[in-house]
Design goal:
Elements (H helix, E strand, L loop, with lengths): L2 H19 L5 H18 L4 H18 L7 H15 L12 H16 L1 H34 L1
Length: 152
């Protein structure tokens, strides 16, 4: 099955996956889902690196959303969580027990969602870069203050 057929089939079933995402509308419930996704990623991380990176980004974005550290509109949040549920589900368009192809459809769906949410992802990555810069500056300032205090 090629990528276009997978995406078309996912679009037909998208409401089913988005509906299931409502079950994960709290941090506790989402952490369970995230743990399942990380477990599945762990066994396949070398096979589909780009898809795994996209999925990891979605998990981090959603955790930041639940921590009130990033705003995700409801529609986009449901799409992200629905995609993660799709990834975790062993019985989707192409069942996971079929070697290689069973995971390829999961990664294709994650890539599709990544493309759909590219603006939101760009905003998140800018925020994340700013946070890293602030942390690095804070570390630098702490070192400088300690060195000045030691000189006294």
């Amino acid at each position: 099955m090629d990528a276009k057929k997978i995406i078309d089939k996912f679009k037909q079933e998208q409401t089913k996956w988005i509906e299931k995402s409502k079950d994960y509308s709290s941090m506790d419930k989402f952490q369970e889902l995230g743990n399942k996704a990380y477990e599945k990623m762990g066994t396949n991380k070398d096979k589909f690196k780009d898809g795994i990176e996209g999925l990891t980004r979605f998990i981090k974005m959603t955790i930041d959303y639940f921590k009130d550290d990033f705003v995700i509109p409801k529609k986009e949040l449901m799409m992200i969580i629905g995609g993660i549920i799709y990834f975790v589900s062993p019985l989707d368009i192409v069942p996971d027990f079929i070697p290689i192809v069973g995971l390829l459809d999961d990664v294709t769906v994650i890539a599709f969602i990544t493309k759909q949410l590219s603006g939101l992802i760009g905003t998140y990555e800018k925020k994340d870069d700013v946070k890293k810069d602030i942390i690095n500056i804070k570390d630098y300032i702490d070192v400088e203050v300690n060195e000045i205090e030691e000189e006294k």
